[in-house]
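Annotated sample (chain length 414).
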Amino acid sequence: MVDDSGPRTRCGIDSVQIARIERLLRETPQEDLLRIFSAEELQDAGDGVGRLASLAARFAAKEACLKLFPRETALGQIGPGDFAVARDGYGAPSVVYSPKIQELLDRYRLKTIALSLTHDGATASAVAVTEPAETRVPLAGRLIYHLLPIRRRVVLSNLRRVFGGKVPEEEIVRLAQAFYGHLARFVVEFLRFPLIPAQRRAALVRVENVEAILRAHALGKGVLVLTGHFGNWELATAAGIAQFPEYRGRFHITRKPLRPLWLDSFVYGRSRREGFGVLLKKGALEAILDRLAAQDIVVFILDQHAGGRDGVVVQFFGHPAGTFRSLATIALATGAPVVPAATWREADGHHVLRFDEALPLVECNDVDEAIRANTRMYNAVLERFVLRHPEQWFWMHRRWKGPRLSTSHSSPGS
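Output written by the structure step:
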């Protein structure tokens, strides 16, 4: 059974006969068994008299957890192997999630799943209950939302497109207010950044998994970095990369010109002083290829709307969205690895710049289909980044708009 007492609080209950698990263990090949139980779970259950009851309770827990997500379970998108049961030092059970489950928790704004397990001589039972995530809203966010609601209609529309039907309306409003609070901190940090001594800047930012981009760079084809407007991307990127002086001048960002011109000079001038090259998107193909041939790193900000010949329509949070085709086009043409990267601000005010492992290149006989498939994969990565810290994405941009886009070839540098 499943008790769904609200969009964010869910309860799943399941019972299983221990004799059923005994038959399962006896009749199931080891490789199939590992699709149900992790190697750690099988080892933790031991070989003694309590093994069957322990695994039966874990199986009931997996089934209870699946009932928390009935739609995804019915569609076959998740299964028992996406959940594992571990125990802490006091013997209390907890759920270990696969990346797919973590993404579901983020989509439904759920913090965690709490478990309760029990068994008697013949039956094992489990109860799984979700705990909603709490969105902290700073005072500045509330004030700006009510008194200076810059593009508030766009912000709320975008949030509803992503979270509508999954979380209550009041949570969507809290996310909007938290976003405005983040935006206020962003502006203050951006203006103060040049005044901060270099040593203190480095202490503000932690770089995670830098090995991923180093492995990609070692392939000798240059690197394409996939990112978006996450956290304080200006501060975190500049201070993070500055910790690796050997790469000064090796990072180049593809960007659109800003209006008015003084803002363009201010923002991009600062980027150049921090050691970043700036490549204007329009007509940048030759410059990008030159940088890759020199084994440099080119950063693509891919979370904005792209129209006309510049874009290809692919899904973004379940809705068609015009997305720049240039990154996929260049990756297919050069074989340069695409490394995802994101930044975010932690609760204590420190920033994180994290690199993920290089993405596999999807190749098809049809070039347009290959561009579409890779671009959809890029959007899926951006979705995970947005869901990880939703209040720190740039919701003011009109990400979904415009008529159906052209699917014909365009300049990759656009």
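Annotation: Residues 196-392 form a domain with the Glycerol-3-phosphate (1)-acyltransferase fold (CATH 3.40.1130.10).
Annotation: The chain is about 40% helix and 20% strand.
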